[in-house]
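User: Just a sanity check before I run the rest of the batch. Below are the structure tokens for the first item. I only need the designed sequence back.
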């Protein structure tokens, strides 16, 4: 029995075992976590190598009924740890309980950013994310301030995770091969439990700034500052120059305007 990759699900199955092993070996089990949720396992190419780690408790979640049937045949002892569900719509505590867990996978490119936003919702329960993305997305997530690739997703992820770009994967190791290269990144939870500012306002500030990234902050976030003069350090800056801490400082400044 084989599973046919489905275009509408963005499926590109890994076929190269060396690549699968390399990805699995990048997992660091940050903070001693040994519970792993693999998203979109397909036919289990990566699963085989994740399972080989000592002491691991592995869960699989897939939206593809055909893949779920295949995985039950391939891993009969996993039982109810093979879950037929939409990761993006699932309450992850219903699958994983309240304990920490790592998220890993060869993520479908069409929902990879949404997967990360979902992980951010459960960030204090997810100490590590190990995943493969379209290369330009992986680069964007890992990029540091000062480059054109640095953007909204970079700031949101780096607020709570340390990001490392691990390696690039060529098109030919997939079935069917995608039209772009892929990039593998590791995200490990940093020590920031929460932001020292209003998180919803923080997200709004970041999004507003980058929506007009060619403008200076004085102009791009004018709608949020009530015509108040920005602190001098921000006046002529563009958003790609600001670190996470800078955006936090800017958000706190805007919060302060609301109390005046």
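Assistant: Here's the designed sequence for the first item:
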């Amino acid at each position: 029995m084989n599973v046919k990759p489905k275009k509408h699900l963005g499926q590109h199955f890994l076929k190269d075992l060396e690549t699968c092993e390399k990805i699995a070996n990048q997992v660091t089990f940050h903070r001693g976590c040994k519970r792993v949720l693999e998203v979109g396992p397909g036919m289990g190419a990566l699963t085989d190598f994740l399972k080989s780690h000592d002491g691991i408790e592995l869960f699989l979640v897939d939206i593809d009924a055909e893949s779920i049937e295949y995985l039950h045949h391939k891993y009969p002892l996993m039982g109810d740890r093979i879950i037929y569900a939409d990761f993006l719509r699932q309450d992850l505590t219903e699958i994983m309980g309240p304990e920490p867990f790592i998220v890993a996978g060869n993520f479908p490119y069409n929902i990879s950013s949404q997967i990360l936003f979902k992980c951010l919702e459960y960030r204090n329960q997810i100490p590590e994310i190990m995943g493969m993305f379209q290369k330009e997305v992986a680069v964007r997530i890992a990029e540091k301030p000062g480059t054109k690739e640095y953007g909204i997703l970079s700031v949101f992820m780096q607020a709570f995770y340390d990001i490392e770009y691990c390696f690039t994967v060529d098109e030919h190791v997939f079935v069917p091969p995608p039209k772009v290269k892929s990039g593998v990144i590791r995200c490990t939870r940093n020590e920031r439990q929460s932001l020292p500012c209003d998180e919803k306002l923080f997200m709004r500030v970041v999004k507003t700034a980058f929506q007009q990234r060619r403008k200076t902050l004085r102009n791009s976030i004018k709608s949020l500052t009530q015509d108040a003069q920005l602190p001098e350090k921000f006046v002529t800056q563009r958003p790609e120059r600001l670190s996470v801490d800078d955006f936090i400082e800017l958000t706190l400044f805007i919060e302060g305007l609301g109390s005046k």
